[in-house]
Amino acid sequence: MSLCKVLIVSEDPLLQGKIADILRDEGYYVVVVRDRNLALNCLEREEINIVLAEEEILAKEGFQFLRSVRERFSEVVVLAVGSSDNSFYVRSLLNKGIYDYLSRPLTPLRLLSTIKRAEEHLNLLAENKDLKKRIGTRFSFAGITGVSEKMQRIFDLVLQVAQVRRPVLIFGEQGTGKELVARAIHQYSFPEGRPFFKILCPGLTSGFLKRGEWLKREETPKKVPDEFQGTLFFEDVHLLPFPVQAEVVDFLEEHRFGGGSKDFRIIASSESPLDEKVATGRFRSDLYYFLSAVKIEIPPLRERKEDIPFLIEHFLREIAQETGKEVISIDKEALQVLMEYDWPGNVIELRNVLEGMVILSQNQILTAKDVPAQIRKGANFGKIVPVRVGMTLEEAEKILILETLRANRFNKSKTAQMLGIGLRTLYRKIEQYDLSVNEFSKK
Q1: In this structure, are residues 175 and 346 in contact, taking their beta carbons and an 8 Å threshold?
Q2: Which of 183, 185, 204, 329 has its CA 20 to 30 A from that of 294?
């Protein structure tokens, strides 16, 4: 039995009785009123979750009733019942804050499915409130978000290495957030404030140190300062040209970086383990040993997927502020697709995908339809099917065909293409293994 409370606002006795009876039979708590004043009084007294109102009542006096509900009871879901088949008009209602529009004639199936989605939306809002509280306290650290054990370990390492001035080498795949970790170390190393200099290693040429062109910060100095303070961050040090590496060694030894001074420190980042480059003679061993006094490895996103829901919530709030577009959250089906994808571009790819979804979506909740096709395809390829040792080839083939059909939403052409077989062969296999609609619906 449902505990969701539904307020029906309608002047039509037949509509009142029909809708109320259907919802009560499904276990909903239902209140029925005839006009907007009674509806507002009811909202004041009762903890209403869903308002189901006639379009005419919502639209009276420039949608005054709808505005009152949205302003005073912002967490209530509003559904409209009307007779319009104009998609532009319906879209304008959705933009005003209506969750969904139910066209007459209203069938029980459509009514109940819409109410059920509204319930899921409310549950999602409640979950997100709790998520935001947790993100704001325990699971966010110096701009880095993570709940996984691996990321909690990174947080601990940042605090540890910030207490000493030894060089730090941060390595991880592209997009894992190496610069964020470097800036976190800098922030906790110099709470009183010191400059953060970023040296872009790729493409540097001989003599770059003397020219001072490598300094990038909020206020770039016109020349190399005589005495450094703060952090020197060598970004993508694995791409530092070999002829220039000798200059860097001489420069670091001359200034005795990492030797115990309280005024500066060295941090470097790399997308690949430098010891492999040292072994093949592509990276100077003395520079490697200097930079790698302390090593921090940032795990790829595919190895810490429990962080994805928290990262999504964090990014959605950022994107909403940047774009001025209100997005409440992401539904469970879309989240599942994003969780199944391996994210070769890591955190940066996740944020860029979410930004595109937000910009293109016309709704306040992102759904699986908003997920780019290449992400959905990649997520489907990543799914593991349960094939056991000792299972016959026919049993394994049946499972593979069935799960591929499900992954492609039963599109047989796509399924045949993904399996590398002809469409006729697929139809024959479906008949052979008796893969009926009932099989598709099983979880």
Answers
A1: yes
A2: 204
Mean pLDDT taken over the chain: 81
Instruction: Report the chain's terminal Cα–Cα distance, integer Å.
Output: 23
223 pLDDT above the threshold of 80: no
The answer on pLDDT for 284 being more than 90 is yes
**Looking at residue 100, which CATH number applies to its domain?**
3.40.50.2300
Domain-embedded: residue 338? yes
With tokens 């093949």, the residue in question is 280
CA distances from 184 to 146, 155, 187, 355, 398 (A): 14, 9, 5, 24, 51
Same-domain status, 365 and 426? no
CA distance 185 to 169: 12
| Burial of 358: CB neighbours in 10 Å, binned 0-12, 13-18, 19+ | buried
Task: Match 């010891």 to its residue by tokens.
Answer: 275
Is the domain of 262 the same as that of 176?
yes
Digit-coded pLDDT (tens) for 191-217: 777 888 888 888 788 877 666 555 544
CB neighbour list of residue 142: distance below 8 Å, 6 or more residues apart: 158, 180, 183, 184, 187, 188
Q: What is the pLDDT of residues 294-327, one digit of tens each?
A: 999 999 998 898 889 889 988 998 898 888 887 6
DSSP state of 307: G
Going by the DSSP 8-state scheme, the letter that residue 395 receives in this structure is H
- Which strands, in side-by-side order, build the sheet including 77-82? 29-33, 5-9, 50-54, 77-82, 100-103
If DSSP codes are grouped into helix, strand and coil, which group holds residue 280?
coil
Burial degree of 345 (CB within 10 A; 0-12, 13-18, 19+):
middle
Torsion of CA 351, 354, 355, 356, to 10 degrees: 130
Q: What is the pLDDT of residues 163-190, one digit of tens each?
A: 888 899 999 999 999 999 999 899 888 8
**Domain membership flag for residue 184:** yes
Domain encompassing residue 196: 156-299
Q: Name residues whose C-beta falls within 8 Å of residue 413's C-beta, 6 or more positions apart in sequence.
A: 423
Taking residue 225's Cβ as centre, other Cβ atoms within 10 Å add up to: 12
- The least confident of 2-11, 52-61, 364-373 is 2-11
- The conformation of residue 34, written as its DSSP 8-state character, comes to S
